[in-house]
Write a structure and sequence with these properties.
By secondary structure, the chain is mainly beta. Helices cover 9% and strands 39% of the residues.
Length: 134
């Protein structure tokens, strides 16, 4: 009976990791929808293979301070109704849409990032060097 209680009491802790491809994206063109395989997240050096061509090795860096991932959504530009009577403002009880204003963005937090996983090109030592002479 105690083992059932212990199993139910186990909390699952989520940890969010940011994949940083900045150092690689300058050297290689990575398509936004390219298939990828990420393995070894529980190791010190995870491996990321993109499009079965590009093989990267990563290392973790702890975040300093608070690192938050955000998302943005388009919202309509709204001009609040003028307070008080006016000849110009004849719309009572509603906000006026101003077509001359640019659409605004609403930013919402998605997750708190715990670690950053930075990647660099993995040089595979098992592949023979084509430039080597026999």
């Amino acid at each position: 009976m105690e083992s059932n209680v212990m199993r139910d009491a186990v909390e699952i802790e989520e940890e969010y990791v940011l994949l940083d491809l900045d150092s690689v994206s300058e050297q290689f063109d990575i398509l936004p929808n390219a298939p990828y395989v990420l393995s070894g997240l529980d190791t010190l050096s995870p491996i990321l293979v993109i499009d079965n061509k590009l093989k990267l090795i990563g290392h973790y860096e702890e975040t300093i301070g608070t690192c938050i991932a955000l998302t943005e959504e388009d919202t309509s530009p709204i001009v609040p109704e003028e307070i008080g009577p006016s000849e110009v403002n004849k719309s009572s009880g509603r906000c006026n849409m101003n077509p001359n204003l640019c659409p605004s963005k609403q930013v919402k937090p998605v997750a708190c990032i715990d670690k950053i996983l930075k990647f660099k090109l993995l040089v595979d030592t098992n592949v023979p060097d084509a430039s080597a002479q026999p």
